[in-house]
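Late entry, written up from scratch paper. The run itself happened at the end of the previous shift, but nothing got recorded in the book at the time, so transcribing now.
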Amino acid sequence: MAKQQLLKISQIKRRDDLYPRNQTNYITTLRYSSALKTDAVFPPITVAKVKRTYILIDGAHRIEANRMNGETHIQAEVLENLSEKEMFIESVKLNTSHGLQFSAQETAKIVLKLKELKVSKNKIAELVRIPNDRLKPFMAKRMIRIVGDKGGVKGVDILKSELKHLAGTYAGKLDQKKFIGIGQVQIINELIDLIEKDLIDFDNKQVERRMRKLYKLLGNIY
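Output as recorded:
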């Protein structure tokens, strides 16, 4: 049974290898921040206590929203005596049950991590909510075979989205613009969402200056 505790935000550590989301979404953080200012009540985040460290299990957007509002503490449910495998599985469960839906890239990364942790295929399918018979084709679309430079080295599967982080191990042509473009589309979509929902903070002088520069640059292009 988890116990609730008020923690310093600075005490909470997010480990990328144990947290299923790639990054926090600025729009979601801003919405949570605005809701908190109107006294909205959010459920406590979830952390795992490992010695004197608190590892984030669920609640990255709530932490960022509280930090954005100048808060230094946050209410948390504290889990104890969990292995790293149990921490990751619990994090996937909680992040799947609420909040933003996982992207296809995040889901593929989760599947790889669960395989690494020796989780059964049936359990993986249950956790990521993809039927067992569709899991293999889902992963096949998002994986590529990377081979070493020595004949006897077996190939390894890696996410296509992570190719840009590799150094000289990809035996084939790589369309860098295509992969870089995926990240650019996400940034542009978030900016459009901010504008359409009238969430741009024009009272912030720095934001106003950057938006004016963006407007000018777009005018030069179009």
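Residues 176-196 form the longest helix (21 residues).
(Scratch paper discarded after transcription.)
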